[in-house]
Structure formats: structure tokens, C-alpha cells
Design goal:
Blueprint: H1 6-30, H2 36-57, H3 68-73, H4 82-86, H5 115-136
Helix pairs in contact: 1-2, 1-5, 2-5
Amino acid sequence: MGSGSMDDKALQAWLAVVERDMKAIRNNLYGPEPEPSMAAYHCQQAVEKLLKTVLVATGVMPPKSHDLDLLIARLPTEHPIAPRARALSHLVVFLSGPRYPGPGIFNDPPDDPSVEEVVGWLGEIESLRADILRFLGLPS
């Protein structure tokens, strides 16, 4: 991609949103009042935005969807990022559970994750992000 192209700007815009989600994860894990459920929500959001970044990079307009499996299915066949992202697709349960009380999209809201679980997911997401940046030829 050429310097300053529309695709470059779109990729940078998606990556900026990813960075905000990553910051929110860390703040919700390591801030003065940890909220692992909200950190888990931002884990789902970071994975979603990373997938949308890859879709844009491959010339696919990302759908307005939070469904990680749907986004993964839109990647080119056998894309090297797909298996790593698929391993994080379980995070979709945190999309609404931590933010809306009572039954909603999910009849059985997830249990609150532990800080340790979310720290593990954060590590996986950071690794996925680094791999995507390498795939895109961008510095990490």
C-alpha cells in the first residue's frame, strides 16, 4: 500500500481503535479499581477491531457486526490469522453481559472472569496484534 493511501488511512484508523481498547483492558485490569468483566468486554472489542483491520487490508469491507465467527469467516481461505482469532472467538459472550444487567442477547450471562483469565486473554491479543502488524508490514 502506498504511503498516505485511503487503505493506509483506514488501517491506521482501525488500529487506533484497537489501541484504545487495549488501553481500556489494561486500565480495567491494573487500575485502582479493577473491573475484569469490563476488561473482558474490551478484549472482545479489540479482537473484533483486529479482524476488521485484516479484512480492510485484504480488500474486504468489514460488516457492521460484532460476531467474531462471522468476521473470521470473511477472511480469505486459510488466512494465517484465522486460527489464532478463532481461539479468541469465545470472547463474544462478553459483548453485552458485563454492560447490561439481566437476560438480553444471551439467556445465560457469563460468569465474571478472573483477573488472571483476562490477563491471559490480553497476552493472546497482544501476540495476535503483533502478528497482524507483521503481516501488514507495520512496526509493532
